[in-house]
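Q: Given only this backbone (33 positions), what sequence would you predict?
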């Protein structure tokens, strides 16, 4: 139970990190143009 929760939390954190990177790329593209 706890292990599954930790795995889910890690996946959630990875998705959040990926979303943050996409937002950063978007801002960079806007700043360059």
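A: Predicted residues:
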């Amino acid at each position: 139970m706890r292990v599954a929760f930790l795995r889910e939390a890690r996946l959630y954190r990875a998705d959040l990190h990926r979303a943050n990177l996409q937002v950063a790329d978007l801002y960079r593209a806007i700043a360059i143009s």
